[in-house]
Design brief:
Elements lengths: L5 E6 L4 E9 L2 E5 L6 H9 L3 E6 L11 H5 L4 E5 L9 E3 L4 E3 L3 E7 L8 E7 L2 E8 L2 E2 L2 E2 L10 H16 L7 E4 L17 E2 H7 L8 H10 L8 H10 L12 E2 L1 H9 L3 E4 L3 H6 L6 E2 L6 H8 L6 E4 L6 H10 L5 E5 L2 H7 L8 E3 L7 E4 L3 H6 L6 E2 L5 H4 L8 E4 L4 H12 L5 E4 L3 H8 L6
Helix pairs in contact: 3-5
Length: 450
């Protein structure tokens, strides 16, 4: 039998991969699907396949699983028995296999990223043909172990070392490895562009696996952890219980200005998803700027509590289906609607409109606040700039010095999110740099500080 076709579907925003595998007899296996089932169905249908199985490597913290949506259309869900799923599934433990009719799927117990984690080894007879490693062995990295509970972080790191050493690195060097987490994922501890690797490549080049012993591995791994969105601590349980099945995604309901007022009085947050320039030119006072782009969901999940009702302000031509898809993909179900007619309708209703100044790199003045992640700031920043992660902006706004603030990130999107947070807390002296640190230091004739 020839090697099965494996199609990689990448979510660039969350940094994850899912896989559609042709397992023969016009059937497909999907590994770690995200909530929206349409891309997997489309990939299968283009190849004349029906999705028969959906395999989960672990209880995901960064996205809502799509297995239950697929199951509503007749797909069998395969998952770790130890995960304790409360919806129908075929449970497996380490060492158990699933006969796919010509191919075999073997569960390999690989605790570490999560306690219940399984990797899946696809065999053609006795020959290994692919390893779906989930959040265990990644490209040039391993997945983080601090997303379950603080007190479990080190023990899980030790389990991960043993899992990889004892159960994965003994597989053939040329075996293709298909991880779920990759570049851009907060579950990963290293950047990189490749999505697929091999056992041999990771054995010889993975810097974490080069650690001389377990203690050194644990120390290196834990030292590399950055912050992550708060919703990560909620989605494991959502996935264990089983998310709501939508079938078809809803569209945001149109809301007039008065209804928006009522919703805000009841605790809703107004999220303006228009580009930075449009928000700067005029927005609903107190609204939060999170431009709609691939990373939208990550920042929504970082800056807004999952239970809060969401009122959106969008611009002409923006994809409302994509907006809802990203919200539901991270378990943000409380979509109250969209301000009908946008900011122009708000202004026409006699409501005030606020603005934020955009400045060129050579105009950055006052205190510069860099809201990139700590690792980004450490790799190079404007001399004298203050480092404040965007995720901390609301909590630490009161610690910023008085006087004009110029907020920056890499391009302007995160900076505008931070500026909107500061403005909502009463800072009226905030501007946003169009550009990044390299642009500012070039305009000043300086060099980046580290």
């Amino acid at each position: 039998m020839t090697a099965p076709e494996i199609v990689t579907l990448v979510d660039e925003g969350l940094g994850n991969c899912s896989y559609v595998v042709d397992i023969g007899e016009r059937r497909a296996l999907v590994v770690d699907p995200e909530r929206d089932p349409r891309p997997y169905r489309a990939a299968a249908e283009r190849r004349g396949l029906r999705i028969a199985l959906s395999a989960e490597t672990h209880l995901h913290a960064d996205f809502v699983s799509g297995s239950r949506e697929l199951a509503a259309q007749g797909t069998t869900v395969v998952a770790a028995r130890a995960a304790g799923l409360e919806h129908p599934h075929h449970g497996l433990a380490g060492g158990e296999t699933l006969d796919l009719g010509g191919l075999t799927l073997e569960a390999i117990e690989t605790p570490g990223h999560t306690p219940e984690h399984l990797a899946y080894l696809l065999r053609d007879g006795s020959r290994p043909v692919a390893l779906f490693s989930g959040g265990s062995l990644l490209v040039g990295a391993v997945a983080r172990t601090d997303l379950v509970a603080p007190e479990a972080t080190e023990a899980l790191a030790r389990s991960l070392w043993r899992s990889i050493r004892a159960r994965l690195l003994g597989l053939p060097d040329d075996l293709a490895v298909y991880p779920t987490h990759g570049a851009g994922s907060f579950c990963s501890v290293a950047p990189g562009g490749d999505r697929v690797t091999t056992i041999g490549r990771e054995r010889s080049t993975n810097p974490l696996l080069a650690a001389p012993d377990e203690d050194a591995f644990v120390a290196r791994l834990l030292a590399g952890f950055g912050t992550y969105p708060p919703y990560f601590l909620e989605l494991r349980e959502v996935n264990r219980r089983g998310p709501h099945v939508y079938g078809a995604y809803p569209s945001p309901a149109p809301l007039d200005a008065r209804r928006v007022d009522d919703l805000v009085d009841g605790g809703a947050v107004i999220v303006d998803v228009r580009p930075v320039e449009a928000f700067a030119a005029g927005h609903v006072p107190g609204s939060l700027s999170i431009p709609l782009r691939p990373q939208f969901a990550s920042w929504l999940g970082w800056l807004v509590a999952r239970a809060r009702p969401l009122v959106f302000v969008a611009g002409p031509g923006q994809d409302r289906d994509e907006l809802v898809r990203q919200c539901l993909g991270i378990g943000y179900e409380n979509v109250a609607g969209e301000l009908a007619g946008g900011v122009e309708a708000w202004r026409a209703a006699g409501r005030p409109v606020a603005t934020v100044a955009l400045v060129a790199p050579d105009q950055a003045g006052g205190t510069i606040v860099d809201v990139r992640q700590r690792s980004e700031f450490a790799s190079g920043h404007v001399p004298g700039a203050l480092g404040l992660e965007l995720g901390d902006a609301a909590a630490l706004a009161s610690t910023l010095p008085a006087g004009p603030l110029t907020v920056m990130c890499g391009h302007g999107e995160r900076a505008m999110s931070a500026a909107s947070i500061l403005a909502a807390q009463g800072r009226g002296d905030v501007s946003v740099v169009v550009g990044g640190p390299a642009d500012v230091v070039a305009a000043r004739g300086q060099r980046l500080a580290e």
